[in-house]
Amino acid sequence: MKQKGKALKGFIWFLVFMFVCGMVSRGIYAEQMPRVITAKIVERELDHTVEGEGVLEAKEEKPLLLPAGLLVERIHVKKGQMVKEGDLLLTFNTESLKKLYEEKQKELTLADTRLKDYESGVAKETQNRQRAIDRASEDYSQANSSGQDGVNIAQGAYQRAKDALDSFPSLKEYKKKAKEKDGEYQKLKKEADKKDASDEEKCAFEEYAAQLESSLESRYQEEKQGLKEALSQREGELSAAKKEQGEKILAAGRALEDAREPLRVEEATEVELRQLISDIKKEQGIYKEYLDKEGAVFAPEDACVSDVLLEAGGITGETGAMVLSTLGDTLYFTGNIVKEDKKYVALGDLMTISFGGRYLSDIPVLAIEEGEDGGYKVTAEISSQDRMIGENGTFSLVRKTDSYPQCIPISALYTENQEDFVYYIEKQETILGTELVAKKRKVKVLDKDEKFAALDGGSFTEDELLIVGFDKEFETGTRVREEE
Fold first, then answer.
1. What distance in Å separates the CA atoms of residue 64 and residue 384, rounded to the nearest whole number?
2. Which of 2, 227, 351, 360 could form a disulfide with 397 if both were Cys (CB 3.0 to 4.6 A apart)?
3. In this structure, what CATH number is given to the domain that contains residue 484?
4. In what order do the strands lie in the sheet with 296-298?
5. Are the beta carbons of 154 and 237 closer than 8 angstroms?
6. Strands (E), 318-476
7. What does the mean pLDDT of the chain come to?
8. Is 82 helix (H, G, I), strand (E, B) or coil?
9. Of 267, 290, 323, 334, whose CA–CA distance to 58 is shortest?
10. What is the tens place of the pLDDT at every residue in 82-124?
């Protein structure tokens, strides 16, 4: 009884030891995995920041900048005339303004229709693609399930063949059992073992025993060889089942990956259409403002009319309508931007200007002109107090886009062979439990700024985790662990 207790206690300590070893091994295994930082998609606006350098210029003269394409009805001032802030300078033809306003309304209606058609088409394509993804997912699950069934059957047959071979007796045991079951052998042996057995009975037993011995040895080798061949056959069938399962899963997985390919729309993108609508509304708002004032343009401040560049019946262009010599204590700040940034700057946008660490905020853009180097110049007006003509500074302004439903940190976006993609994590069940595996998915980028990228709708669900940081290099299929 004491020996049984000691054995039980030893067995329990063995189990504890094995459990501790397993936990240590699992910890080492997890420590070797890349640690990743994850994030989910968010709905947000993008910030397009425009930056540049500029210089302070004298404000003795400045052009009266007006929207291009407006018909001048009458000029109310002359060259050299002094004007007060709010004095009438010129008036636009109101009929021309109404026509321009109505044309912009037609453009706005057309742009709205195009945007709705675009969104409807994308929604339909997204719906069709989702159905394709669902079918491909079902096929993938079916391929995995059916393939596993075949592997399980083959595994069972292999195990039975292996057990049969492992349990096959030794030659000695085989002969012993065969002799015990052989009636003739037992009969002759019994007669030969008698005390008064004749020489003839002994001889008969010896002859039969020798024949049986030879026969059993041959039969033993045949049966054992048959079991080996059966095991080899079952092993081949198991290997074939696993190969077939892998091929089915691979084919179904590729079909699922193809179904998840991002939509590619050849027409104008959503961001372009929304930007177009925003620009049309801004131009229409300018016409509405002048219509409300019956086409009147007033002096923005006390000044002297240095020159009149238009006459009645003229059309406003890119240059100013007249030149005013200002009388206030202010200066111009003129900055340079590249051609690509012009679409993010409009009259009235607020910029921040810096002069060696001194910042001026919420300074409106007064003018945007084409520069000599293919870029553009933006002009703003600031106080001349404590500043000198020719002083250099820097400026920045931010144009916010409309809200995008699917935005990701820019650190999650990769580009390879002119294609954008994102790594995300997927849960997989293994013998070690639930593990996280890095996966790769192609995406279509609609727009991006320095921190975020807007993706085409439907690229990810709200619950999927995107990899935005890591401590070790990895690739698709790599097992990872999430940073806590």
1. 20
2. 351
3. 2.40.420.20
4. 72-75, 88-92, 296-298
5. yes
6. 322-326, 330-337, 350-355, 358-370, 376-383, 392-400, 404-409, 413-416, 419-430, 433-442, 445-448, 452-455, 465-470
7. 81
8. strand
9. 334
10. 788 899 999 999 998 899 888 888 888 888 888 787 777 665 6
What's at 431, amino acid-wise?
I
The one-letter amino acid at 391 = E
> Is residue 164 assigned to a domain?
yes
Q: Can you say whether residue 459 is alpha, beta or left, with left for phi > 0 and alpha for psi between -120 and 50 degrees?
A: alpha
- pLDDT tens, position by position, 115-155: 787 777 665 666 666 666 767 677 767 767 666 777 788 78
What is the pLDDT at residue 21? Answer: 46
213-220: long-range contacts (C-beta < 8 A, 24 or more apart)?
213/175, 216/174, 216/175, 216/178, 216/179, 217/171, 217/175, 219/178, 220/171, 220/174, 220/175
Tell me if 376 is assigned to some domain: yes
DSSP 467: E
The closest of 437, 441, 476 to 459, measured between CA atoms, is 441
Q: For helices 94-166 and 199-259, give the axis angle rounded to 10 degrees.
A: 180
Could you tell me which residues are beta bridge partners of residue 452? 409
| Integer Cα distance of 422 and 410 in angstroms | 10
* Measured CA angle at 101 (ends 97, 102), to 5 deg: 120
CB atoms within 10 A of CB 11: 10
Domain-ending residue, one of 228, 259, 290: 259
Structural domain of 457 = 33-52+342-484
Q: What is the pLDDT of residue 22?
A: 46
Written as six digits, the tokens of 77 are 């001032």
pLDDT at 243 over 70: yes
Tokens at residue 71, please? 């018909």
**Residue ending a domain, choose from 218, 233, 259:** 259
Calpha distance 192→208 (Å, rounded): 12
Q: For residue 469, give both structure tokens.
A: 């940081």
Measure Cα distances from 325 to 269, 347, 382, 455 in Å. 45, 21, 16, 50
d(CA 315, CA 418): 46
Name, in order, each residue with C-beta under 8 angstroms of 398's C-beta and a sequence gap of 6 or more: 47, 48, 49, 50
Measured over the CA atoms of residue 345, residue 346, residue 348 and residue 349, the dihedral's sign is negative
